[in-house]
UniProtKB/TrEMBL annotation:
<protein>
    <recommendedName>
        <fullName>Pseudouridine synthase</fullName>
        <ecNumber>5.4.99.-</ecNumber>
    </recommendedName>
</protein>
<dbReference type="InterPro" id="IPR006225">
    <property type="entry name" value="PsdUridine_synth_RluC/D"/>
</dbReference>
<dbReference type="GO" id="GO:0003723">
    <property type="term" value="F:RNA binding"/>
</dbReference>
<dbReference type="Pfam" id="PF01479">
    <property type="entry name" value="S4"/>
</dbReference>
<dbReference type="InterPro" id="IPR006224">
    <property type="entry name" value="PsdUridine_synth_RluA-like_CS"/>
</dbReference>
<comment type="function">
    <text>Responsible for synthesis of pseudouridine from uracil.</text>
</comment>
<dbReference type="GO" id="GO:0120159">
    <property type="term" value="F:rRNA pseudouridine synthase activity"/>
</dbReference>
<keyword id="KW-0413">Isomerase</keyword>
<dbReference type="InterPro" id="IPR006145">
    <property type="entry name" value="PsdUridine_synth_RsuA/RluA"/>
</dbReference>
<dbReference type="InterPro" id="IPR020103">
    <property type="entry name" value="PsdUridine_synth_cat_dom_sf"/>
</dbReference>
<dbReference type="InterPro" id="IPR036986">
    <property type="entry name" value="S4_RNA-bd_sf"/>
</dbReference>
<dbReference type="InterPro" id="IPR002942">
    <property type="entry name" value="S4_RNA-bd"/>
</dbReference>
<comment type="similarity">
    <text>Belongs to the pseudouridine synthase RluA family.</text>
</comment>
<dbReference type="InterPro" id="IPR050188">
    <property type="entry name" value="RluA_PseudoU_synthase"/>
</dbReference>
<dbReference type="GO" id="GO:0000455">
    <property type="term" value="P:enzyme-directed rRNA pseudouridine synthesis"/>
</dbReference>
<dbReference type="Pfam" id="PF00849">
    <property type="entry name" value="PseudoU_synth_2"/>
</dbReference>
């Protein structure tokens, strides 16, 4: 028999979700069967699995040790393989400044990503224990392309994971990016369009008119520095769709320099020869949280900022000077 005592870190999860994490090799049908047969009880009573857990709840698993071991694989923190540039951390969230070339999430088992490196970091820092890892899995809440740099939000508690997911879904935080684009932009603007992704080519198409299967997108921007050829742009990502900033700005005649997927071939070749630039200069530089947050209250009114990568800063200074 095993007992799971629910703490503030695990509360807010459904019972069936926490059981699926604890008995992580068991099919869902087995978990629900054990609930029906009262082999798993919540606070000494029969449960269905859809109950939302609170601090102090007790989950009892009345199974033989051999059965538990058969359906359970111990979750280990693993090794820290890359050093994380942590911008902010508390008991619920960690904000990481993702470098160029690192994946947000693995695409192959041998990949190194922010998502798998956040777990050993959190354990090593004492933000979560290996025991708590059995029922709570820290993970990233937003994703950036491999060659996009900047802020990634990671939840390390159920409160953090659920709060960040809801805020991202409902656009309750402000997200700002910096990029260098072709052409001179002199005024702030907010633009909208429709975006449709082609899964086969992993490219998106932007249209001013609504098209079948497309999502509505909104992007706001303001120039920071400009000359006759280029503009350093601060972009607010109002909606967050795949390649939105890159494709949306390209569609209005201001593609990102270095963006070989959506950009200007002639300018990209010039930037490649001049700076060795082979990918887009796009950096998530700032996230602003609203005041009076009901959960993750430490973040209320906070502004998280990520400094520019050295390469981005060097190219910016070369194109615009050190103003």
């Amino acid at each position: 028999m095993r007992e799971l005592n629910i703490t503030t870190r695990e509360e807010g999860q459904r019972l069936d979700k926490i059981l699926s994490k604890y008995l992580n090799k068991a099919p869902k049908s087995f978990v629900y069967k054990m609930l029906r047969k009262k082999n798993i009880k919540l606070n000494g009573k029969k449960a269905t699995g859809n109950e939302k857990l609170s601090q102090g709840d007790q989950v009892c698993i009345y199974l033989a040790e051999d059965t538990i071991n058969k359906f359970r694989e111990e979750v280990k923190a693993g090794k820290q393989k890359i050093k994380l540039d942590v911008l902010y951390e508390d008991e619920n969230v960690i904000m990481v400044n993702k470098p160029w070339g690192i994946l947000s999430q693995k695409s192959k088992p041998e990949d190194i990503s922010i998502n798998d490196q956040i777990i050993p970091y959190a354990v090593n820092q004492g933000l979560i224990s290996e025991k708590e890892l059995q029922v709570v899995k820290p993970s990233i809440c937003n994703r950036l392309d491999r060659n996009t740099t900047g802020i990634i939000i990671c939840g390390i508690s159920i409160e953090g994971l659920q709060t960040m997911a809801e805020m991202l879904k409902h656009r309750d935080m402000e997200k700002y990016y910096l990029c260098i684009v072709k052409g001179k932009i002199e005024g702030s603007q907010k633009v909208s369009a429709y975006l449709k992704k082609d899964e086969k080519t992993n490219k998106v198409k932007v249209s001013k008119q609504e098209i079948a299967g497309a999502s509505h997108i909104e992007t706001a921007y303001e120039p920071v520095i400009s000359n006759d050829e280029f503009t350093l742009l601060k972009v607010e990502l109002i909606t967050g769709k795949t390649h939105q900033i890159r494709a949306h700005l390209a569609s209005i005649g201001h593609p990102l320099i270095g963006d070989f997927k959506y950009g200007d071939k002639k300018i990209n070749q010039e930037m490649k020869q001049r700076f060795g630039l082979k990918d887009q200069l796009l950096h998530c530089t700032e996230i602003v949280f609203p005041r009076d947050m009901k959960t993750c209250k430490n973040l209320s009114g906070k502004k998280i900022q990520a400094p520019l990568p050295k390469r981005f800063d060097m190219i910016k200074n070369d194109l615009f000077g050190r103003a």
